């Protein structure tokens, strides 16, 4: 694999981060339709973070002399069985992203591309946080599962999330 090949797979990953932004935005639309504004806001903030992840790849590829190409973004699911289902899908998605980042890191190691390794280390740390947060959301929602009043309280708590942090 050459650095050019590495940039090509990073470019594919950039599009997957955009897909993540699209997926969370779809979940935000779902929560808005379910009158759960706290969770909708949380998902919109998460979507913004995923867009920033994509742009980090953009900057790395571009800074290293590569060329970014925007590929098609898959259509995300738009219907969910409930809040637990949506957050479980978010958790599964983050696990997939973590596995992809790990693969990219291995490729950077094979290529002895130390700049790419350092760049990807930020994402490895970020993914630990993303998985932890999604798991906490699922666990919290499961505790509130059988009580609409508890679900509304959880929604209010989720709504307290800032727009810039995870
Ligand atoms: Mg991401």
What does this entry look like structurally?
By secondary structure, the chain is mainly alpha-helical. The protein has a single domain, classed as Ferritin, CATH 1.20.1260. The chain is built from five helices and no strands. Helix 1 packs antiparallel against helix 2. The longest helix is centred in the N-terminal third of the chain and has 31 residues. The chain starts with a helix and ends in an 8-residue tail after the last helix. The protein binds magnesium ion (MG). Magnesium ion binds next to helix 1 and helix 2.
What's the helix and strand layout?
Elements: H1 3-33, H2 37-63, H3 83-110, H4 114-143, H5 148-158
Magnesium ion is lined by residues 17, 20, 50, 53, 97.
Record keyword descriptors for this entry.
single chain, 166 residues, mainly alpha, Ferritin, 5 helices, 0% strand, binds magnesium ion
| Strand percentage | under 5%
| Main β-sheet description | none
Q: What is the tally of beta strands? A: 0
Q: Which structural class best describes the helix and strand composition?
A: mainly alpha
The number of domains: 1
Q: H/E element string?
A: HHHHH
Q: Quick one: CATH superfamily?
A: Ferritin, core subunit, four-helix bundle
| Rg computed from alpha carbons, rounded to a whole number of angstroms | 17 Å
Number of helices: 5
Q: Can you tell me the CATH topology?
A: Ferritin
Mean pLDDT: 94
Helix content: over 70%
Query: CATH architecture, please?
Result: Up-down Bundle
> In angstroms, what separates the terminal alpha carbons?
34 Å
Taken from the alpha-carbon principal axes, the silhouette is: elongated
Ligands bound, unique? magnesium ion
Low-confidence stretches: none
For the record, the CATH class is Mainly Alpha
